[in-house]
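Pilot study result, target chain (232 residues):
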Amino acid sequence: MIDRYSITASADDVRERFSVDVPDFYLPRYNAAPTQLLPVITSSSPKGLSLFYWGTSPEWSKNKVLSEKIVNLRAENLEDKPALKKAVRKTRCIILADGFYGWKKVGKKTAIPYRFVLNSRDPFAMAGVWEEFEDTDGNEIQTFTLITQSANELVETVQERMPVILTKQAEKIWLDNTSDEASLVGVLTKYPAAAMNFYPVAPTISDSKTDLPSMIIPTPPADQHGNLTLFD
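Predicted structure:
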């Protein structure tokens, strides 16, 4: 499951890269996590930036476990269920990022966090779908789900899944309301491993309440308890 990523680009860089208006509410995020309000661009409003909850809102997540089907959707399953096919046709979005995190298991209770980035270090778009519903107080809530696929050769050295990272051309197709279903499914391909890199980060990335610039700095490999390890 992918449940952490980053979008640390400045507002100017986001505006230039994605050709969108960037409101004052935009802030760089070093440890984006489920239930947080995070920036997305929807196919219904491709020139603007929106803030949607990842997976579900904090109020709805209380005393509940966030399952993979809420936080992530597997690309392999999108054509199997009518509701998912409808979401791909009607409510697509891209999720702004410049890195995502994964944990490499090196023992039963030991895992080392890594950050995956593009070689260029540029921001990129991850494919997603979104939905809108009313909470118990009648307020409209928008949420998004990240689409994942099996890992490429680089990511699979750490974990089995990775986000669907869209090329700039695929990004245009994903946000285009005139794209047909075959074209949309066709862009859900693996991003080339040769265009990516990764490095270990501090285990504090596991704490979803911590969001600091220091979290993207390369560190010696350490497990989730902060113990340095020789396994890398």
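One observation from the pilot: The radius of gyration is 17 Å. A full batch analysis is planned for the follow-on phase.
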